[in-house]
Amino acid sequence: MFEVQDVRLDPASRRAWRDDREILLSRKEFDLVLALISKAGSVVTRDELMRDVWNATFWTSSKTIDVHLGWVRRKFGDDTRHPTLITTVRGQGLRFETTAPVNA
């Protein structure tokens, strides 16, 4: 079980919660969140995500990650313009934040 901020993710049952509310995720959405939350606080590169989540060693589309990330942010109620859970580190990748930013 991973618990970061107010998000819980159970890889064994493939279930996710924010606070006490269960979040229903597709298989790829769950895999994306798992790849990020399992390395919370660290940047995960797009190459790593394509390899680990999509089992691709080549870029099918640079939009694949962005589209799924948008769905995940909406489902978790993370503001897409000012996210506090999953942030984009320009030119590097994505990071699941261990704490919400102070100005959030």
From TrEMBL:
It comes from the Bacteria. The keyword Acyltransferase does not apply. SUPFAM superfamilies: C-terminal effector domain of the bipartite response regulators. Residues 1-98 bind DNA. One of its GO terms (molecular function) is phosphorelay response regulator activity. Residues 1-98 form the OmpR/PhoB-type domain. One of its GO terms (cellular component) is cytosol. One of its GO terms (biological process) is regulation of DNA-templated transcription. The keyword DNA-binding applies. Keywords: DNA-binding, Phosphoprotein, Two-component regulatory system. CDD domains: trans_reg_C. It holds the Pfam family Trans_reg_C. PANTHER family: PHOSPHATE REGULON TRANSCRIPTIONAL REGULATORY PROTEIN PHOB (PTHR48111:SF40), REGULATOR OF RPOS (PTHR48111). This is Winged helix-turn-helix transcriptional regulator.
